[in-house]
Amino acid sequence: MEPSVASLILFLHYRLAIACLLFSIVLAVWGTYQFLRRRRISPGFRSGYVLMILLTGVQGLLGLILMTVTQPPDILHIVYGAFAIIFLPGVYFYADRGAQERRQRRGRRPLEEGLMEADQRVRLAREAAFLIGACWVVAIAFARGFMTG
Q1: How far apart are the first and last CA of the chain?
Q2: DSSP 3-state assignment of 42?
Q3: SS3 (DSSP) at 41
């Protein structure tokens, strides 16, 4: 690979690292604020979370391309990146598990409606806590990856 192409990929990898770090912090603060106000996770937050997963994937792809040309300064840099790529979608699908269970239980009797509403609030709070926690954890991982690379 030409040095100019490698330097361009390195530049993009560096700038996308900053974007991922800032985006994860913004999502974490936004989600924490909504959680403390006892509001459910908005569709905008979910879209932002999925966008963060995609940005992390692009960041990892650029990192893999760079690994074919150069050696990373520290192996921990790769560990933090791999962690983020695996962790973010894993938490998203794990937190969404409650929504799948709710869809399966819709055919219950009317007497159980009150219990279902309370159960639904708990599940929504659980989903919010998982996604917000994941944003904070990944923000730390991005920061550590930024420091090691």
Answers
A1: 21
A2: coil
A3: coil
Structure tokens at 67: 């690994």
Distance CA 142, CA 148 (A): 10
Contact call for residues 94 and 130 (beta carbons, < 8 A)? yes
Return phi, psi of residue 12, to 5°: -65, -40
Over residues 44-100, the pLDDT tens digits come to 999 999 999 999 999 999 999 999 888 887 889 999 999 999 999 999 999 876 555
Residues 6+ apart with CB under 8 A from 92: 49, 50, 53, 131, 134
Q: Record the tokens describing residue 87, joined without a space.
A: 């962790």
**Residue 42, both tokens:** 């908005």
SS3 36: helix
CA distance 132 to 114: 27
